[in-house]
Design brief:
Blueprint: H1 16-25, E1 40-49, H2 53-64, E2 69-72, H3 81-84, E3 88-90, H4 95-99, H5 106-115, H6 123-143, E4 148-153, E5 163-166, H7 170-183, E6 187-189, E7 192-199, E8 205-212, E9 217-227, H8 236-242, H9 260-266, E10 272-283, E11 299-301, H10 315-323, E12 329-335, H11 336-340, H12 344-356, E13 359-362, H13 365-371, H14 376-392, E14 413-429, E15 436-438, E16 444-450, H15 469-488
Parallel strand pairs: 1-2, 1-9, 2-6, 9-16
Antiparallel strand pairs: 3-5, 4-5, 7-8, 8-9, 10-14, 11-12, 12-14, 13-14, 15-16
Helix pairs in contact: 2-7, 2-15, 5-6, 6-15, 13-14
């Protein structure tokens, strides 16, 4: 993967006016440009920008520690990647693991993190996450009552089950955290977007300038400011700058993940850390999210008609493979028996795919593949070889599990176009283990913290270590930053 620059000082598209405001605050605006006067000023001890898992957690912790806290959100509700996540948190040494008879501790998790790129990053952050991820899961489950499934699952390339799955969806935990924040007295300010940081002459961050959806400029002054604004997958310029390998990959992240929360910190000298990676999933053109049409019992081929992976392998690892294909696509081969097993919802989506030309049907796989412009002869040979593996009872090519190794022999046949989409960016503010933001010289920028996806480049190198690491990083970083900011005030 291409390494990304350590710092971007470029003007962010759409924030020209905010940049001028910031220049005016620093006393270096052009002589003929006067800074806009805020229509009102709010004050607080701790200001949190962004109401996802990290931000809502930080706000609730700060308020419970006695700080007068404002949570600023540009949309009308909770947002960011944590709202869309399935709901897995990765951690070790938990009560849920103990109940499942799994012996584990943070030292083993640290060893795994170091194998998955952590050895190229700050070892103190790897150790912090390994030691506190399990603690955060216990806190959410045992103290806050977030429901988790009993089964703890294996994720990534880890050999130990460490994936703790929220019962239902990640939004359950986010809703509980929102209620906790409101009960703690956090003031929610919605429909108001931060535009620039307010910085004192001696370099201390003192809050933000923000604009309401009615166009009014508001100044919010704070003793400590926590940026929890999420990633930048919906900012094409930033993706091209920092994650060029994924510049043409479709995204399904929240509408608010546009990167301005990161850019306003870069504009005052905060350091960027990231190595070009993104989080992603496999995608179906007729269904958002992780569609069940991406069936592990199908056979998957590339545009050359060749099988390229273990279909029941780790989604994130397959995402990285497919995202580097020239067409950023792969193709699932179904037979009629698989189509007959689809439920009503999936049947409707499947028929839509046929109608729109994303899927093709043929008496043979060769015919269906040719209809999509693929190498049909190779696809047919690949299917014949695949069915031979099924008959032998073992996938000697990619080690697919026996439960998913099913013969595809009942015509007609179907070839379904599939792809990939980004679900997060790995890069952002460089922070220490107190989640204070650092500048290029690794000096602390006073008054500024960053949590969640906007600072995850300090923890994740380029490939996702395992499903659930990002969501746990959000809750863990938010928890500790909120406490630390309240103490600083």
């Amino acid at each position: 993967m291409n390494a990304t620059p350590t710092l971007s000082r470029r003007n962010f598209i759409g924030l020209t006016s905010a940049a001028l405001l910031g220049a005016g605050l620093a006393g270096c605006a052009p002589s003929d440009a006067l800074p806009e006067t805020p229509s009102s000023t709010l004050t607080c001890d701790v200001l949190v920008v962004g109401a996802g898992a990290a931000g809502t957690t930080a706000a609730s912790e700060a308020a419970l520690a006695g700080a007068n806290t404002i949570l600023l959100e540009k949309s009308g509700d909770l947002s960011a990647s944590s709202e869309l996540a399935i709901g897995t948190l990765y951690g070790a040494g938990t009560t849920l693991q103990q109940a499942a008879g799994i012996e584990d501790d943070p030292s083993g998790l640290l060893e795994y993190f170091m194998k998955r790129g952590g050895d190229k990053l700050d070892p103190e952050m790897q150790q912090f996450c390994a030691e506190h991820f399990g603690e955060t899961i216990n806190w959410l489950h045992d103290e806050l009552g977030v429901p988790f499934k009993e089964e703890v699952s294996k994720k990534g390339s880890d050999t130990v089950p460490r994936g703790h799955n929220i019962d239902d969806h990640a939004y359950v935990a986010l809703s509980i955290m929102e209620e906790r924040a409101r009960k703690a007295g956090v003031r929610f300010v919605n429909h108001t977007a931060a535009e620039s940081l307010v910085v004192s002459p001696d370099g201390v961050v003192e809050g933000v300038l923000a604009r309401t959806d009615k166009g009014r400029l508001v100044k919010i002054l704070a003793g400590e400011t926590i940026m929890a604004t999420g990633g930048f997958c919906r900012n094409e310029e930033m993706i091209a700058d920092y994650c060029p390998d994924y510049a043409d990959v479709y995204t399904e992240v929240g509408e608010g993940c546009t990167g301005e929360g990161l850019q306003m910190g870069l504009d005052i000298g905060a350091a960027y850390i990231g190595h070009g990676g993104t989080n992603g999933i496999l995608a179906c053109p007729v269904e958002a999210g992780q569609s069940k049409l991406i069936n592990k019992k199908a056979m998957w081929i590339n545009s050359d008609g060749k099988r390229f992976t273990n279909e029941d392998g780790q989604t994130h690892d397959i995402y990285y493979t497919v995202s580097h294909f020239p067409d950023k696509a792969f193709y699932a081969v179904y037979d009629q028996a698989m189509v007959d097993d689809l439920n009503e919802h999936l049947t409707n989506s499947f028929n839509m795919g046929l109608d729109k030309g994303y899927f093709a049907k043929g008496d043979t796989v060769e015919e269906a593949a040719n209809a999509l412009g693929l190498d049909g002869a190779t696809a047919q040979a690949t299917l014949d070889a695949y069915n031979a593996l099924v008959a032998a009872g073992e996938d000697s090519e990619f080690n697919k599990k026996a439960d998913n190794l099913v013969a595809l022999e009942q015509g007609p046949y179907y070839v379904l176009t599939m792809g990939v989409c980004t679900h997060g960016s790995f890069g952002g503010y460089h922070v220490n283990t107190d989640f204070e933001v650092l500048d290029e010289e690794e000096e602390i920028i006073p008054g500024l913290y960053a949590v969640g996806e906007v600072s995850c480049g300090t923890f994740i190198y380029d490939d996702y270590p395992a499903g659930g690491c990002g969501l746990n990083y959000a809750y863990t970083s938010g928890r500790y930053a909120g406490q630390n900011a309240a103490k600083a005030v």
